[in-house]
Amino acid sequence: MDGASAKKSTSFETLVIQNITNVSELKAKLNDIIKTGKDYDYDVSSCLKALINSSDQDIVLLSIQAVSELVKCEEKRETYADKAIIAPILGILQKDITTENVELIKQCCRALGNLCCDCDNSRQIILESGGIPILIKLLERSFNMKLEAIQMLVAKSLLNYSIGGSEFSESIVKGGLIEVLARILSMELEKVDFDDDMISTCLLILSVINDNSPEFLFEETINKLVLKILKDTTNVEISELCVDHLLTQAEHDSVKTLLANEGGVQLVCARLEQLVDKHDAGDLNADDTEVQSIMKQACDLVIIVLTGDEAMRILYKNGMGEVYISMVKWLDSPNYHLLTTAVLAIGNFARQDDYCIQMMQDNIFDKLLDIFETYHKLEIRSSAGPQPVAGATLSKLQHGAVSALRNLSVARDNKRRAAAAGRAAPALLRALPLVRDHHVAYKLLATLRMLLDGQESVAKLLASDAEALASVARWGHAPEHTGAGGEAPRLLAWAVKQLRHHPHWAHIVQVDGCISSLVNMLVASHSLMQNEAILALTLLAIESLKKLSPDEQTDYDYGKSFTSQLIKSEIGKHVTILVDTNCAKMPVEVAENLLAFLDITSKNNEVQLDYKEAKVHETLKKFRDSRNDLSDDMKICISGIVSAISDNGTSV
To answer: Where is this protein found (predicted)?
Structure first.
């Protein structure tokens, strides 16, 4: 049918309906429209607008029912998204519920629910017409009168309405819907068998609010009710909705603590174990994708709760907490969801020195190292062909294990124990050259930095391993990976500091890229890192550029290598940038260390020339003149460096 014919037919159909004078015939026509539903070809919206306001309540009922059926068609929905349709429906819903109008109210709710499905125009009209207070009041009345069918229809209408976006979900929050939902959920929980559909609808509304306003914190009452539903339900879909809600709410520390105190994490852990057992036995009715999804959500919930300091302490309970014991047990689990969760959880428990020391004594450190080595080897083998474990899982497990190792290595007692055991540093150094994932590299480098802090033996191992040093240098030249790119030069700087009284420093000068990595760190955004780079370069300069007696001469010219690497790394340019960008804010102690480095290196003619070309002397003069907190000795030192660069650094 072409456009003109369709329009003509619609007009004719409208005319036919308008000219029906017999009520029975009109009812029959409306029933025909209802029966045909979304497949009804004609636009009779103008007729229905009039009939909705009829004095005959049967005609009103059938007209609204017709609207409800017609708007199941997406194209027709926009046509009926009209105030002339919606306002009378809202007017009906304001009336008291009686036995005579129960069916009419049901159809009104159905119509609004269908009109709001993917239709912002309908939602906007409801909002602007004051429809939300009407619907929430109707929900309360239906709840009080135990009219469960109306209660369900109103809830589903509000759900379809709120899905439209934050403007709509915020209006139901302001209208007091959450308090009504809390009453409904409480009542459902008192039943022997609660209504899964009602519970799901309420939870879906909460989910929409969470999605549209992730920062919104629900009252403790609601979060406790959701946790209680999770405890009582065996329905996978409802469990998923509960976990999803709690996961979003657990961004707030108060909810983390609530879940820790109320046994929420223990419950989730127990459910996870049950899910794994049933899944492995093939006893689950849900499809695999659904099961994997809820397992991931549940695991994420365990971890996010543990990021809260108070929650973590509650769950650790001096090493006797049920959740902590479960996590230690899961370190041996063959299920990757449980194993990954355990590794990440241990990393979160390892945020307090006394906990870390206790875990070290309980051999958790060695267990984590086992896990890292196992999955690192699997990843190496995966390059030769398909493996039973997905690449993302391999990376996540390695990253989690080495992150936890890093946290455990912060405590001084643990550094000594790890160094004395002699296993961790060699294993991590062997792995480093083969690591390709920058997230894993970041934490591996950080772990090595923690392990060598105060441990000369570990620093010597690093300096003696040319392949590992080359890998550190490689990551130090990967600015696109800020984590690994920032950790690599810090590891070198800490190693140099440990080796200042040992000949092993020489290996760092010999491996290409190490010096330039330290030079690059001069312009890091944090003054701590800048100072670490300055100190390391100063110590290397002292050793490399010192005059040697004939007996101390070696085949390798460390002075020449060091200066050539400095120049190749554009040391002058980096110093100029460092001073220019931090002129007013550079801490005095950092400035003192920088001047010590410049004082040593500016005595070398080749470096002097690089400094002069980069205008280091001019930058230093500006720095001196702009600061009033420099000591006289520092000013004298600056003058000496400026003079050395200006007078002796001549171009060739």
So the answer is: Cytoplasm, Cytosol; Endoplasmic reticulum; Mitochondrion
Q: Is the pLDDT of residue 142 over 90?
A: yes
Sequential DSSP letters for 168-194 = HHHHHHHTTHHHHHHHHHHHHHHSSS-
Residue 384 has, within 13 A of its CA and on its CB side, a CA count of 4
Q: Write the CA distances from 177 to 132, 183, 214, 228, 491, integer angstroms.
A: 9, 10, 18, 20, 55
- On whether the pTM is more than 0.85, the answer is yes
In 3D space, the residue among 218, 298, 291 whose CA is nearest the CA of residue 266 turns out to be 298
**Which residue do the tokens 């406790």 mark?**
224
Helices and strands of the chain, counted as H and E runs: 39, 0
DSSP 272: H
Quick check: 182 pLDDT over 50? yes
Q: What is the pLDDT of residue 552?
A: 64
**CA atoms 36, 38, 39, 45: torsion sign:** positive
The candidate with the shortest Cα–Cα distance to 303, out of 338, 273, 276, 279, is: 338
Q: What is the DSSP letter of 55?
A: S
* pLDDT score recorded for residue 533: 97
Quickly list H helices, 383-481.
391-408, 412-421, 424-431, 438-452, 456-464, 466-476
